[in-house]
Amino acid sequence: MLEIKQLVKKYKTGDVALNGVDLKVEKGQVMALIGPSGAGKSTLIRCVNRLETPTSGEIWLNGENIVKLRSGKLRKARRNMGMIFQEYALVERLTVMENVLSGRLGYVGFWRSYLRKFPQADVQAAFRLLEKVGLEKMVNKRADELSGGQRQRVGIARALIQNPDILLVDEPTASLDPKTSRQIMRLITELCEEQQLAAIINIHDVALAQMFAERIVGLREGKIVYDGSPDDLKPDVLTEIYGEEDWTAVRKRKAKKSTDSEVEDESVSAEHMAEMM
Amino acid sequence: MAETLSSTPKVWQLRNRNQQLLSWFIWLLGTALFVYCWQIVSESTTWFFVWDAPRIAADIGGRMIPPRWSYINELWEPLWDTLNIATIGTMMAIVMAIPIAFLAAKNTTPSTKFVRPLALLVIVSSRSINSLIWSLLLVSIIGPGVVAGIVAISLRSIGFIAKLLYEAIEEIDKNQVEAISATGASGLQTLVFGIVPQILPAFAGITVFRWDINIRESTVLGLVGAGGIGLQLNASLNVLAWPQVTLILILILMAVIFSEWISAKVRHAII
């Protein structure tokens, strides 16, 4: 459904953010994109939505090369991609309802949106989604009155009301506490499953990625260095993605403490990863 | 501890010797300049008038009291004109300043090479000319009266409002704007949903502040014939009708207090 071919992005400063990325995401597949800061994760999904213009390469979504699209057609293509941001990127001074309905702007004419006269079907969809993310009582609150977790839920509702084919999610949990992070990740993956949505989720919490994604892609210096299942994410793979680091340090220390403990399983458990990250 | 302290204590001074001397020298120069200037001013002053000033001031003050209250019935209309000059002038300025602000802001201008400098030029030329001078020009172009005052106020205000507004536009959070355009919204929709809500508080504050300033400025425009209460002030001064002048000054004071009160209320309500 989404196919990226030889994507290159060079910034004006000369930094190469993406250096020939090939990637294919199937319908309904939830994929986590991991990698160190500056690896190009954000640039990749921003290129798909054309918030950044790629230097070269192709991005095919539903049989259209997004790189080649211009204003009107680009807007139509963007309607099929829901974006969720790290800092939520809600319009702070608008109400929750207005923020959710802004996901329909691509379908509604200027005056209708200006006067906030959205079609009844859209309003109903917004109520349904707000109920689903547990914010049905917050409809008329202003976005800046909400907590971080609540804001991200509004962000999710805004992305989903677009009826997208794919979700582009940029560090959804980086500003949230561990518990809220898990709730948000669970919400995103559940909604994807329910609506057969594909998703690219940028995340630097490897443990969360392993818990919720069915496929993990590792990016390093603008190149894909790992593409596989969460279970095969062994220390040597992490070294390849993130660079040299003693990924088993915690376990060794623990092993020393309890002299009678057996050598643990080689795969890095989610618990340990969480401690290391 | 004690030993290290007692051996050669480390000296600390804010300035070393040369810096200290330089600082004294600069003070000396400043004082000399002041004395010299005082001398020049003194030579070109007729000291008799200055020594006489308190007596004259007391004399005029005496004549100003009590205010001529009966004159107030002739002042309601010019006062109303003054408020209208300020209010309509501000509204006209807003209408023209908003598009100019969007053209001048780096993040919304259609072209930084051509349109932006043009918008900035409009802003600078509007700001660099005082309302009183605009009035002088306009009174000779469109004749004396309220219209000249309104146009003068609005021409002066365009630059003020547009400048503060475009600075506010440049400071918005661009993530919110990106999020809106990422949904497939058109440029105009992005403006209305992503940018306008962010600058609305600044906009309200700026316009009310300018209206407040304009009330003050419109009270003097009459001095050059551009309508309003300034006309009466000028006329009364010319015939040395001091009790009338007092009344006019009281009325202006009331108008300014009123506008301050309104603008404080509005700013409080919106921000």
Describe the structure.
The complex is a heterodimer of chains A (277) and B (271). Chain A is of the alpha/beta class and 277 residues long. Helix content of chain A is 37%, strand content 21%. Chain A contains 11 helices and 10 strands. Chain A has helices at residues 41-48, 71-79, 96-101, 110-114, 120-132, 148-160, 178-194, 206-212, 235-242, 249-257, 270-276; strands at residues 2-10, 16-25, 30-34, 56-61, 64-65, 81-84, 166-170, 198-202, 215-220, 223-228. In chain A, the strands form 2 sheets. A 6-stranded mixed β-sheet of chain A has the order 6-7-8-3-9-10, sandwiched between helices. In chain A, a hairpin with a 2-residue loop joins strand 9 (215-220) and strand 10 (223-228). In chain A, helix 6 (148-160) packs parallel to helix 7 and helix 8 (206-212) packs antiparallel against helix 11 (270-276). Chain A is globular and about 65 Å long. In chain A, 43% of the residues are buried. With 271 residues, chain B is an all-alpha fold. Chain B has a single domain (71-270), classed as MetI-like fold, CATH 1.10.3720. Chain B contains 11 helices and no strands. Chain B has helices at 2-6, 17-43, 47-64, 76-104, 115-128, 131-142, 146-170, 174-181, 187-221, 229-238, 242-270. In chain B, helix 4 packs antiparallel against helix 5 (115-128). The radius of gyration of chain B is 28 Å and the shape is flat. Chain A binds chain B through residues 49, 51, 75-79, 81-83, 85, 87, 89-94, 98, 102-107, 110, 113-114, 155, 158, 162, and chain B through 173, 175-176, 178-186, 188-189, 192-194, 197-198, 200-201.
Helices and strands, with pairings:
The complex is a heterodimer of chains A (277) and B (271).
Chain A: E1 2-10, E2 16-25, E3 30-34, H1 41-48, E4 56-61, E5 64-65, H2 71-79, E6 81-84, H3 96-101, H4 110-114, H5 120-132, H6 148-160, E7 166-170, H7 178-194, E8 198-202, H8 206-212, E9 215-220, E10 223-228, H9 235-242, H10 249-257, H11 270-276
Chain B: H1 2-6, H2 17-43, H3 47-64, H4 76-104, H5 115-128, H6 131-142, H7 146-170, H8 174-181, H9 187-221, H10 229-238, H11 242-270
Helix pairs in contact in B: 3-11, 4-5, 4-7, 4-9, 4-10, 5-7, 6-7, 7-9, 8-9, 9-10, 9-11, 10-11
